[in-house]
Amino acid sequence: MNKKAKSVNYAKYGYIFSIPFVVAFSLFTMYPLFRTAFMSFTDFAGVAARETGVMNILENPLENYTRLLFENELFQTSMRNTIFMWVINFIPQILLALLLTAWFTSRRTKFKGQGLFKVLFYMPNIITAGSIAFLFSTLFAHFGPVNYLLYDMLGVIPERFQFNQSALASQLIVAFIQFWMWYGYTMLILIAGVLGMNPEIFECAEIDGANGVQQFFYVTLPNLKTILLFVVVTSIVGGLTMFDVPRLFEDGGPRNATHTLSMFIFNQAFGGRFFLNRAAAASMIVFVIVAILSILVFYLLRDKDAAAIKREIRARKRSEKQLEQVRKGVQ
Predict the structure, then answer these.
(1) Do 269 and 276 form a contact (C-beta atoms < 8 A)?
(2) 148-199 pLDDT tens trace
(3) Cβ neighbours of residue 210 under 8 Å, at least 6 residues apart?
(4) With CB atoms counted within 10 Å of each terminal CB, which end of the chain scores lower, N or C?
(5) Peptide bond preceding 254: is omega within 30 degrees of 0, i.e. cis?
(6) Model pTM score
(7) How far apart are CA 27 and CA 22, in angstroms?
(8) Is the pLDDT assigned to residue 305 strictly greater than 80?
(9) d(CA 31, CA 34)
(10) Which residues is 57 bridged to in the sheet?
């Protein structure tokens, strides 16, 4: 007698196991996001509003946005500072990380102690931001080691340079700290991406006579697009929300030169004035900027061949549907 085998549906277990994540994501990510977006259209500001919790939508719901973008000089300065310090730290960061990746993954230049070098390059990333900010504040102080070296020992500058009074010097130091902290992390991500590639493609390139530089530019980089996409997007998110290093290094100074968007949002919301609606609007502006830049990066680093194949498949399906409709009409 044939017994029908009962099929077990495992899909429901996947939904069950995903419930904790969905609940946590909804409570701690989606709800704060929607509440922040709603708050940005209201008059929720001041100690009294914070105590009562009453939020009224403004007559002009975009008033907070227009004031920030066109009237608030500190917000505009913070945006310029944030973008500038991110760009000048990310470009050398990704270039050095790619160079070190090519060095560590080269099939021709193998050397001992690679693990030690990787640990040393990654080590700044595991040091707390507060410790690093204090370290660099001490190094570049008026009577610090850098001035002692340049002025007292080498005599290359006519007098002690006040790094903490120079806007450009402070921005460059913050950018260097960000670069120094994160290039090792970026390097390890890229190395993992290279080691995950099929080694046969490199063997084929060697058989075809490609040298190390040609292999890197024509084999490694094209196959690293997905990893580069991850690195660039996470760097955009981290760069446009940098907070701890500039705050602990100079607390936004001198003359707001290291004042970032995150510091602006924090000071507006928790700096004693409780302009929560203004902070919410600034947060949403940052969110939109990050989203636009991420979409642009996705578009630039997309796999053009795969996109072309998908377009060809869609065109073929459309033509097949049209032929089928014509056949039905003839019948």
Answers:
(1) yes
(2) 999 888 888 888 999 989 999 999 999 999 999 999 999 999 999 999 888 8
(3) 218, 219
(4) N
(5) yes
(6) 0.85
(7) 9
(8) no
(9) 5
(10) 42
